[in-house]
Automatic annotation (TrEMBL):
Gene Ontology MF term list: identical protein binding; pyridoxal phosphate binding; transaminase activity
Organism this protein belongs to: Paucilactobacillus vaccinostercus DSM 20634
Domain of life: Bacteria
Taxonomic lineage of the native organism: Bacteria, Bacillati, Bacillota, Bacilli, Lactobacillales
Alphabetic keyword roster: Aminotransferase, Pyridoxal phosphate, Transferase
Name assigned to this protein: Acetylornithine aminotransferase
Length: 381
């Protein structure tokens, strides 16, 4: 690539077509996709309802600005939010977290935000400053002030939540950090400490949300009650859309003129989101949970015992396979690509799987069998 900044280390695979959960590159090679475009195309690449919604919208109007009311915006917000919550639409996960940071400070009148080591919240200044990864922040100082970090799942972190704390932000499963599961009791202790200190609990559902773990939002697996939730990725199934969802009581802090973005609530992206939300039914979520059962059985019985594997983590169809230090995850990804399977990495030498939620059980298990073959061969080298 000669004409773009080299911010990404790219594979020499130019994907030009997709159908269901299969992708085809320019050379005509086909791939079974365990990436969903990094947790985005949860309904695959040719979902009929989404294609129809977006095509119809394309024939009507694409963009009108937020200066005019829109029944579509209100309808999608209503379908997205849990009762008693309101939405602010933006274009990405990082923007959703920017909005959350701004709203938390403005609503509480307090400065300090607590985030966690090994977290990822995005790349803009606010979201990057919330990201607990020194490699991502390196060279960009000075960062946004009054953001503190504590260790994820560490009971000592609770003591860092005090009367100065505007908000605590966390992922209930750290995605980019290597698919690290939050401890249920610890998550509840964080929430209790937030309530006691008058701090808002922000849950970043950018990667875990929209059905990925078998619930609409992953925090629902833990019965949590966040004040603010951020989403992106899967909500638009590939059209750029993000949202910050917050409790109705926070509305006075986000009145006219306080925050905005030209493309937030773009009609094409919302037409896609409408299709996503219409299909994210309890029945569909139940199907995701049901098809995860044989997947986790295979992970535990076939993959976990391999010499190359140090551990397995995640929930539903968000899967981390932590590899031993003797095995390079990038080499595994390369070999899987040659075998026709696309996968992802995450921190700590983790092979990360985020297949489209619509992938058939047969292909989920076929992919795992191929992963087992590659990990077995590499482990023996
Ligand atoms: C948990 C989490 N938050 C925020 C982001 C940033 O989202 P975006 O890349 O849409 O800005 C990501 C992206 O990977 C993420 O995983």
């Amino acid at each position: 690539m000669q004409n773009i900044f080299p911010t990404y280390q790219q594979y020499p695979i130019d994907i030009v077509a997709g159908h269901d959960w299969h992708l085809t590159d320019r050379q005509g090679h086909t791939y079974l996709d365990f990436t969903s475009g990094i947790g985005v195309c949860n309904f695959g690449y040719s979902n009929e309802t989404i294609v129809q919604n977006v095509t119809e919208q394309l024939g009507q109007i694409w963009h009108t600005s937020n200066l005019y009311e829109s029944a579509l915006v209100d309808e999608v917000a209503g379908a997205l939010c849990e009762p008693g919550m309101l939405a602010f639409f933006c274009n990405s996960g990082t923007e959703a977290n920017e909005a959350a940071l701004k709203l938390a400070r403005k609503a509480t009148g307090k400065p300090t935000v607590l985030s966690f080591n090994n977290s990822f919240h995005g790349r803009t200044y606010g979201a990057m400053s919330l990201t607990g990864n020194p490699d991502i922040q390196a060279g960009f100082a000075p960062l946004v002030p009054a953001i503190k970090f504590a260790d994820y799942n560490d009971p000592a972190a609770i003591t860092a939540i005090d009367q100065q704390t505007a908000a605590v932000i966390l992922e209930v499963i750290q995605g980019e950090g290597g698919v690290v599961n939050g401890e249920p009791q610890w998550l509840h202790d964080v929430q209790t400490a937030c309530h006691a200190a008058g701090a808002l609990l922000i849950i970043d559902e950018v990667q875990t949300g929209m059905g990925r773990t078998g619930q609409k939002f992953a925090y629902q697996n833990f019965d949590l009650d966040p004040d603010i939730v951020t989403v992106a990725k899967g909500i638009g199934n590939g059209l750029p859309l993000g949202a910050m969802i917050g409790k109705q009581a926070l509305a006075p802090a986000f009145g006219p003129g306080t925050h905005g973005t030209t493309f937030g609530g773009n009609k094409l992206a919302l037409a896609s989101a409408k299709g996503v939300l219409a299909q994210l039914t309890p029945t569909f979520l139940h199907e995701v949970q049901a098809k995860s059962v044989p997947v986790w059985q295979a992970l535990q019985t076939e993959i976990a015992p391999l010499a190359a594997v140090a551990g397995i983590s995640g929930k539903g169809l968000m899967i981390g396979i932590q590899l031993e230090t003797t095995v390079d995850v990038n080499q595994v990804i390369d070999q899987l690509q040659q075998a026709g399977i696309l996968t992802l990495s995450a921190k700590h030498n983790t092979l990360r799987l985020l297949p489209p939620l619509v992938m058939s059980s047969a292909d989920l298990l076929a992919g795992l069998a191929q992963i087992k073959t590659v990990l077995t061969t590499i482990g023996e080298e």
